[in-house]
Structure formats: C-alpha cells, structure tokens
Design goal:
transmembrane helix; Alpha-Beta Plaits; SSD; 32 helices; about 950 residues; Mycobact_MmpL; 20 strands; cell membrane; Multidrug efflux transporter AcrB transmembrane fold
C-alpha cells in the first residue's frame, strides 16, 4: 500500500497543474449537472416487509383515491376570539382549495357548496376545537407527498391569503416539504473553529487553509453526486447533511495528518516533490486505512435491510471516499505547488524548537496514566459505563412535522393541532380491511367500526367506508397520545394482536398502517438490527486491526474502547434529548425520541473515527517497540509522538460535528451531538488514557501473534516501512553507482526464504549462480518475484520497488520450458520475441533467434525446419529455442537457468558468445561450477561466480572474478 501511494503522490506532485485542473473540472461539472437535474431528495421513508408498508402498497393499488398525501390548513383565531366569526371566509377558502388540480376532496369545518370533485356538505363539526378558537380544513390529494408540485403549494397559499389578511393564524401541515432537507450553514462555524485549531497547530495561515480548501472541494463534489443520484433513485433528504458533516470532518483531519508530515519532511531538508510523495506514502497509508474503516462501517448499514438507510450509508461512504481521493491526489498537487513556502519560519520555527517542552508535558500525562495501569483502566471503564447507562432508555421514532424547526409553517400547524385537538391528532392510525370475501358490506363496515370503540388509548374512530370495487374498507383511528410516544406504539401492537380474534369472528381481518404505524415499524426494525450490526462492526474491527498491527491484544483493546465510546456518546445524547438536560442551552429543537437510525449510524461513524485515532496512536507505539524491544518505553514514546496530532484532529472533528447542534434541525442534532461527544471521549479518555494504560499493563504481550496466523495475514504496512526501506536503498544505490557504476549489486539480498546473498557485478558482466536456491535468485534478479529483501539494484533499478520496469527490459528462461501448443516453431519464436519486448523489426529478431537456436541446439539446418510443430521438439530443443529468442532480443538483462541441461559447459560457452555485448548475463548452473566455460567469456566481460546459499563473492576463486578477455 505505501509503495503504491508513494507513486500516486509522486505523480500528483510532478503533474500538479494537470491534477488540479482535472479536480476543478470534475467539481464544477458535477455541480452544474446537479443544478440542471434539480433537487429530488425525499423526506418520506419506506420499509418493505413491514405490515404498515404492505398495507400502504395495497391501498395505493385498490384505493388510489385516498392513497395520495393528506394535508391540513389550520386556522386559529386571535387570542380570546372565536374562529366561527370567520366562517364565511373559511368556507370560501374550502371551495377555492377544492377547485385546485391535484386535490381529490376537501372536508370543511363549515358548510360549503360543491367545488371541483368535492360535493356540497354541511361541515364537519369535529374539525372545530372544543373551545371554538381553532378549526382545520382537511385535503386529500391525488399525488404522493414526495410528488407535490410547487404550483399546488402556491395555489393553496393564495386561497388562504384572505384568512391571514383577516387576522387569523394560518398554517399548512403536510403540504410543503420539510425544511430539514436543506443543508444548514452552521458548518461554517465549525470550519472557522477548525481553521483556528489548524493555524495554532501549524503556526501558518497558509498551511492552515489547505485542509479547509480540500475538504470543501470534496464535500461539494459529494453533495453534487448525491443530488445527481437522487434524480435517478430515491435518496433521503438527510443524506446531504450527513455527507457534509462527515466529509468536512474526515476531509480536514486527513489533510491535517498529511500536511503535518509533509512540513516535517521539508524541515529536514527534503525536496518538496519527494517530501509530498513520502508524506502520502506514510501518513497517507494510515489515512487510507482509517477511511476504509469508516466506509466499510457505513456500507455495513445495509445489514439493517432498510433501503433508505442503506442509500444514506452509501451516500456518506461516498463522501468519505471523495475525501480520501482528494487527500491522496489533489492535496499532494497543492502541496507541491506551494513548494518550500510551507517550511516553518520565524515564530513557527521557534514553536517547533520548543516542542520538546510540549513533549515533556504529554510524557508527564502518559506517565501518570501508566503508573498504576490497572487502576487507570478500571476507573476509566467504570466512569464510561456509568455515562452509558441512560442509553438503555433511548427511544426511537421517525420524524414528523413536530421535528421541524420551531417557527416553520409545518411546525406551527403541528403545535396548533396538538393544542386544539389533542396530541394524537397529528398521528392518526389508518386501518385497512380486505372485504373481498364477504357480500355483507354494511355488516362488515359496522363490525370494523365497532372493533375499535371503547379501546383504551383511542380518542375517536371515523366512519368506515369502502372503495368503488367494494373489496377494501378503511377507517381512521385517533389515539389519545402523540405519534412518538410509547403509548401509541403499544396501542398499535395491541390492535394488531386483536386482529386474529377479529378475523375468527367476522371472516376477514384488518391491518394497521399510516405514517405513524410505519414509523413504529421502522423503529422496531432498526432496533432489531442493532445487535447484528454491532456484531458485524465489532467483528470487522477485530479482523482489520489484527491485519494492521499483527497482534491479538491490540484489536481487543481497540474494540473494548470503541464500545465504551459508543455507549457514552449515546448516553449523553439520551440525557440531552430524552431528559432535556441542557436542551435549552444547546438550542435543541425537539425534546423526545430521536430519529430511528441515529444509534446505528452513530455506531458506524464512531467505529471508523475510533479506529482512526487508534491507528495514529498505536502505530507509533509499534514503531518504537520494533526499534527498541522495550514495551513500556514504546508506550511512552509512541504517545508523545502522536498526542499532538490526535489532539488537533479530535478538536477539529468535535468543532465540525458540534456546529450542527445549536440551531440545527431536530433530525441531525442528536446525531451530531453523539458524534461530537463521542469524538472527545474516544480521543482524550479512551485513546489517550485507557489505551496507554492497557498497553502498559500488557507489556510485550500486546504484540503477540500466533505464528500460523502471522503467515496467513497480509502485510498492511501502515507505517510506510516499505517506503522508508526504498529511501534507504536509494541512498545505498547512489553510493554504489559512484563506486561501481550500474550492473547487479546485492547486499544481504534475500529471495523468498533464501539465504542472504552479496555480489557486485559491473554492467554487461556475467554472473554464474549455482546452489539449491539458484532458481529463486534468477527469478529475483529478473524482476519476476516481489518477495525480495535486503538491498538489490539491477541496472540501477531498486528491487522490489522498481520490479516492473526491470521485468520489461529483462528476459527469464526457466529451467523447464513451457508446455507445447499448436503453434509452429517460427510462430513460437516470433511470439517470444514480442513478449521479450525487443526493439526493432521483430521478423529480423526472430530470424536471428532461429540462427542462434541452430548454434545453441547443435541444429545446423534449423532454417529448413521453421514450420515444424512445436509438439515435435523435445525439452532440450524447446529450451534452447527460448534461450535463442531471449538472446536475439538483446535485453538489458538475460537470465537463463541451465541446471536441467546436459553438457552445461559447452552450452554456457555458446550462450556467452551469442549474447549481445550490452546484455548483462545471469546463468544458473549445476554444482560443481563448470570452470572451463568461464575462460571463453567474450567481449571482455567481468565474471562473478556466486553460490546461491552463501553470502560470499566466490571465496577462494578470485581468479574467476577478474575480467577475462578473449
């Protein structure tokens, strides 16, 4: 991973203007396309498989007249007045509304004449409040809530304008989309705080602005992408807000880590382009891993099986992915563009000089928490467990107009209906019954009405009425409790439990549906999904951290800390939003149950962020432990090295998340608060207090891993060890070039599990390898295997980092030729020449290969047999044919394994005479080495003899290591 990111960072740094222009074009293009398509985000929720959703779907098919949205115009008289004083105005408004398109029927509180498709009526007295100061007009629409046109909203506003002009309070419920769909500007406050933290951290206003710019571009692209997708598939209106919140937080944090590492590299005198590449390879590797954990957790929201939540998780994961792509491509381009201007100067340099004092303060804290590690761990765990206790009483619901911002029209209507008609009036239950199996329609309707009379918790039951086909009946129930209360949820369950007895008596059954019942079903589904989701997330945490740190204890401690963080974050959210503690101070828009997907979403996001901080902290501890072997010192030093970055990152995350709390919409507020508090608790209490104590308590046992598991796990290399090795090898290579030039230079090089090898061979020389590990050496020297350790340069290319370029200019002829196919000899040779990447005319090269084959195989008449099928050649003939094609291609490096060949001495002599003077030749021979062949080396080549299982340069055979001129 680190090697790949190094190449990405190096490319972006060298092609900075190209990368920047591409990113700007993509962001602008996506924004323009999103603007053209328009906003199609939805505020409604559906959950297939629930009783409420199934009943709504059936209602849409069999009773389309009432399957559309319902809306109410609430009219309230001035204080002390009576709404009846404006009876004529209200009746006129009813008639004007009934005449509008998309309005199927209107129920007026006062007598009205026929209008549109609504018949004349004497008025519904039940739509006038008991004290007469309030009334409402009920509308049944032909379109769903998500398809209400703006023209209808405007027309209803015009029809009710005379009521407002007369001094009445007018508010519409269920008609306009919820105002919670928009993205609030509160994130600007969070970005301002983030800028201050960055400026203090970097000591530079320019450096502080870079993470904000890249994060803003990433968020802009993510929001545009969600808008585009929303025009094609249903997407929740909350998705852009969540994506913005996460995109800003992780985007700023990731840029902080990479920019900080880049400036450290510049301070040490590294070239800017090289510094950018190294920063992406080291800090960028940790960033990619942390981002992947967040994305996987968000995608894991699909475990709940709820479409809108799955789409929301995918949208948020897309925002994190965008932040990752910006961090590893656009950010290095911007850093490269600024060049050495990011080197700390003046006050910033003096701040850097005084960091030793700051490190001493952080070291003092970690010494305190590790002095009595068991006591610290137990104390932290106990405190967080107590804070998490209120989370057990967290109630869930889906938002209705009561969760809109105070003062909004829908919220005003909601509060008026609650005040004038009771809390259950905003959440009626709809009962549907399939009466297609009975012919006694009147009797069935009466039975359906009577089934709910006198049931505790029900305030009113409407008259049952059938559809035109007389196969479905509907009745409306008004509870005496609010839609989000436990009493309403219990009432729904009670009514469903009584359905079986009703069916046994009447021969047909009923189903409870409506938006309130749907919200209850979704909350139940989400509550049931939390445990499976937690198992998935915790299991994922264990697997990823085991791969990353190659340890058993580290993943367990990380997961334990994560569970404490989640519990504490949800506990504090419960205290604020359920109990109301500090609600007025924080500007909480609604005290009561929180949105149903809040806990599972907080679990997903905090998982990724917790692993983020754990990576930054423990990776430094592991680095120190690998270097020193002292477990306790590694905890102290690793903490001191990472505390500053974790502190800045946590403060930025907190400021971004918390900025969505004061004055935010009631859906996002509990999510934002739980995340903000969770970040602080995880960074300062769990990662910087509990984890050091546990690591100190475990000592060296923290890094134990069974050998069998160590062999199975891939190497994540999050610390950039491969890149550091590459940089060290570059220094070694430059020194070798000055002393010995190019060629093949190996120092303690290993190939797979081979013994370490050391050899120096000038360019165009000959290396003769023998011994049991010759095949691995040949594969490594030709760039065919990645598992190469130690220091190795072939033709100036570092292996394994530049293995691919080497493989393009080298040819390997293994000891055993490939199986034959249906091709002829000449077809095979031409194909081999092309595969060898030879320059020039392939036909000429192929002809030369066939001539050489005649010499190597002892077939003087080979040219007369070019059409012979390959299947007629024996193994030796096929091998020499491949060898001839390799030599005719004139590669930089030709590696030939002769160990299965007979008469290796003569064959080696012929190969060396046929090889191009510019080709470096490596041959593997049997044991003992055929000394006489070396005496016929042409072209003035230098010869090295190497035993492949010893780190020697042919000891005792110095006569064979000098140049031999023939």
């Amino acid at each position: 991973m680190s090697s790949f990111l190094y190449r990405v960072g190096r490319f972006a740094a060298r092609r900075r203007w190209t990368v920047i222009i591409i990113w700007v074009a993509v962001v602008v293009g996506a924004s323009a396309l999103g603007g053209v398509l328009g906003n199609h985000l939805q505020s409604s929720f559906t959950v297939p498989g629930t009783q409420a959703q199934a009943a709504l779907d059936a209602l849409e098919q069999r009773f389309p007249q009432i399957s559309g949205a319902g809306a109410k115009v609430v009219v309230a008289a001035p204080s002390g007045g009576q709404v009846s004083a404006s009876e004529n105005l209200i009746a006129t408004a009813c008639e004007d509304i009934a005449a509008l398109d998309d309005v199927v029927a209107v129920t007026c509180p006062y007598a009205m004449t026929a209008s549109g498709s609504t018949a004349a009526s004497e008025g519904a007295a039940s739509q006038i409040s008991a004290n007469g100061d309030m009334a409402f007009i009920a509308m049944q629409l032909s379109v769903a809530a998500t398809d209400i046109p703006d023209s209808l909203v405007t027309s209803v506003t015009q029809a009710t304008a005379p009521l407002a002009d007369a001094g009445l309070t007018v508010a519409v419920s269920g008609l306009a989309a919820s105002s919670s769909s928009g993205v609030d500007w509160t994130e600007l406050a969070g970005m301002g705080i983030a800028y201050i933290v960055l400026a203090i951290t970097f000591g530079s206003l320019i450096a502080a602005g870079i993470p904000l710019v890249t994060a803003a571009l990433g968020v802009g692209l993510a929001a545009s992408a969600i808008t585009i997708v929303g025009a094609l598939v249903p997407v929740s209106s909350t998705a852009p807000v969540l994506a913005t919140m996460l995109g800003l937080a992780v985007g700023i944090d990731y840029a902080l880590l990479i920019t900080s590492r880049h400036r450290d590299n510049l301070r040490e005198g590294m070239d800017p382009a090289e510094s950018v590449a190294v920063a992406i390879a080291t800090a960028g590797t940790a960033v990619v891993f942390a981002g992947m954990t967040v994305m996987i957790a968000l995608v894991g929201l699909g475990v709940a099986g709820i479409p809108f939540l799955t789409v929301m998780g995918l949208g948020a994961a897309g925002a994190v992915l965008t932040a990752l792509l910006v961090a590893v491509t656009l950010l290095p381009a911007i850093l490269s563009l600024l060049g050495r201007r990011l080197i700390p100067r003046g006050r910033a340099e003096r701040r850097a000089a005084h960091r030793s004092a700051e490190s001493a303060r952080t070291a003092g804290w970690v010494k305190i928490v590790t002095r009595q590690p068991l006591l610290t761990a137990l104390g932290v765990a106990a405190v967080l467990a107590v804070i998490a206790i209120p989370a057990s009483g967290l109630r869930l619901t889906l938002p209705d107009a009561g969760y809109d911002p105070p003062g909004s029209e829908a919220r005003v209507a909601y509060d008026l209906l609650d005040e004038g008609f009771g809390p259950g009036f905003n959440g009626p239950l709809l009962v549907t019954a399939d009466i297609s199996r009975t012919l006694q329609i009147e009797q069935a309707l009466t039975a359906l009405e009577n089934a709910f009379q006198g049931v505790p918790g029900i305030t009113a039951v409407s008259q049952a009425f059938p559809n035109e086909a007389l196969d479905m009946a509907v009745v409306t129930i008004t509870p005496d409790s609010s839609p989000s209360s436990d009493q309403t949820a219990q009432l729904v369950q009670t009514l469903r439990d009584r359905a079986a007895a009703f069916e046994a008596t009447n021969g047909f059954t009923y189903e409870i549906t409506g938006q309130t019942a749907l919200a209850i079903d979704i909350s139940d589904r989400l509550g049931a999904a939390m445990l499976p989701f937690a198992i998935v997330v915790v299991g994922l945490s264990l697997v990823l951290l085991t791969i990353m740190f190659r340890s058993i204890a580290v993943p367990i401690t990380a997961t334990f800390g994560y569970l404490l963080t989640v519990g504490a974050g949800l506990g504090i959210a419960t205290v604020v939003f359920e109990w109301g503690w500090g609600a007025s101070v924080l500007g909480v828009g609604k005290v009561g149950p929180v949105i149903s997907f809040m806990p599972i979403l907080v679990m997903a996001v905090l998982f990724g962020l917790a692993m983020d901080y754990h990576v930054f902290l423990v990776s430094r501890m592991r680095e120190r432990f690998v270097d020193s072997g002292n477990a306790h010192a590694a905890v102290l030093q690793g903490f001191s090295a990472s505390a500053r970055v974790i502190t800045a990152a946590a403060l930025i995350m907190f400021s971004v998340f918390f900025s969505f709390v004061p004055g935010g919409n009631a859906i996002i507020q509990p999510i934002a608060l739980a995340l903000a508090v969770g970040v602080l608790i995880d960074a300062f209490v769990v990662r910087m207090t509990l984890i050091p104590a546990l690591m100190a308590l475990l000592g060296a046992r923290a890094w134990w891993l069974p050998r069998w598991l160590e062999k199975l796990l891939p190497d994540a290399d999050i610390e950039g060890e491969a890149v550091r090795r590459m940089l060290d090898q570059r220094t070694w290579r430059e020194a070798e070039r000055k002393v010995r030039g190019t060629g093949i230079h190996a120092h303690e090089a290993t190939f797979g599990e081979s013994a370490p090898l050391t050899v120096d061979l000038p360019e165009s020389g000959v290396l003769v390898v023998h011994g049991p590990e010759a095949a691995a050496v040949c594969a490594g020297l030709s760039g065919r295997i990645p598992d190469v350790g130690g220091d190795l340069a072939v033709g100036g290319r570092l292996i394994p980092f530049e293995r691919e370029p080497l493989s393009r200019v080298s040819v390997l002829v293994p000891a055993l030729p490939a199986p034959t196919d249906a091709s002829t000899l000449v077809e095979h040779v031409r194909r081999q020449v092309r595969l060898n990447g030879s320059r020039g005319d392939h036909r000429d090269r192929a002809r030369r290969a066939i001539e050489l084959w005649g010499e190597l195989a002892g077939e003087p008449n080979a040219l007369d047999e070019v059409d012979v099928p390959m299947s007629r050649l024996d193994e030796h003939q096929r091998w020499t044919l491949d060898a001839a094609a390799a030599l005719a291609s004139a590669p930089e490096v030709a590696v030939l394994d002769l160990r299965r060949r007979s008469d290796q001495s003569a064959l080696l002599g012929r190969i060396l005479r046929a090889a191009s003077p510019s080709t470096t030749v490596v041959v593997a021979v049997g044991d003992p080495v055929v000394d006489e062949a070396l005496a016929v080396t042409p072209h003035g080549r230098a010869v090295r003899v190497l035993r492949a299982d010893r780190s020697v340069d042919a000891p005792g055979r110095q006569d064979m290591t000098d140049e031999v001129v023939v």
